[in-house]
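Objective 1b of the project was to move from sequence-level analysis to a structural picture of ligand recognition. The entry below was assembled by the postdoctoral researcher (A.K.) and checked by the PI before modelling. It contains the amino acid sequence of the target and the SMILES of the bound compound, S-adenosylmethionine.
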Amino acid sequence: MTLKQRIIDEITVTGPMPFEQFMEVSLYDDDGFFGGGTLRSEKGGDFLTSPEVSTLFGETLAGYVNDVRDRIGEPFRVVEAASGSGSLLRPLLSVIEVDAMAVEASPAARAALSDLVPVAEELPRSVRGVIIANELLDNLPMALAQKVEGTWRERWVGADGDGLAFVDAPPRPEVIAWLEAYSGPVPDGGWVEVQLAAREWVSGALASLGAGSLLLIDYGDTADNLLPRRQDGTLRTYRAHHLGPHPLEEPGETDITADVNFTALLDLQPSATLRRQDDFLTSFGLRDRLSELRREELEAARAGDDSTRLKLRTLKTEAETLLHPRGLGDFRVLEIEKHEEPTDRAGSS
Ligand SMILES: C[S@@+](CC[C@H](N)C(=O)[O-])C[C@H]1O[C@@H](n2cnc3c(N)ncnc32)[C@H](O)[C@@H]1O
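Corresponding predicted holo structure:
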């Protein structure tokens, strides 16, 4: 039986489900997009992320990790959540020696990572170092809401014959609270993805982090900057590097995602900052590396060394892709530093 039919059967028995429950099943069930046996984040897979574009991404992040290590010293560990195929950690670990582990929800990804670092299904309780996640938050289950005649309604998933359809539902209190705090002035008819799980995940990661920093990279923006996209909302699917069908069409067969509303994360810690990916990578040397690559490519061309020239040209194109101001460079980097809790000098009796 298909995953879609199982969802329809469940709804027929228990009634419509909140969208985040549908998204959880569609992505992380044993037959789900990430829960099944296929490794999704690969060059030949369904989407192309920064670490899959180039080893330069992980190599550049190694500079960031080194800076944090210089700040807080040992013991120090890098924990990458949502590591996918390991395309960020592998180059990072090729340029610096550091204790590292991966956290992955997908069994196929855990299998792909097991030769590289220790792998867990959940974040460890206590981390001193850096927690990194690239394109995790946009894949965490979210509720859906629509503004109708000035008030909020939720959109749940119901069964409609042999298909699935959005159904109207009154908003739950936690959904209303999030919308009031973080959606901004959404126009009538506008759709909002209510990212409660993203906030919960970041809160949990901050609770685990004794000292060091949390670095989260994703597409999205502040609530204000996302407002022009609210009429239709930002929920979408991907398959084989292209936009896929409607999210209710083929659960388990497509990635389901939406732009991350970073405003709902920035208030979790006063030290939180938001930057563009191109600025962030530039500050850790990628633009200098790009200039170097251009120079070296020219030298190889002058020397008539075609194979070196082609290798350098590929790397140069990859660096340009990571920095592209309307592409990956436009992603956002949320950084939250945490400092060691001061020890209680008075002590307790
Ligand atoms: C879009 S992929 C990104 C993979 C990789 N970071 C990259 O950039 O290529 C999202 C990944 O997040 C993983 N994931 C989702 N929820 C997770 C969670 N709570 N903890 C760890 N990994 C999770 C999925 O299994 C999937 O591999």
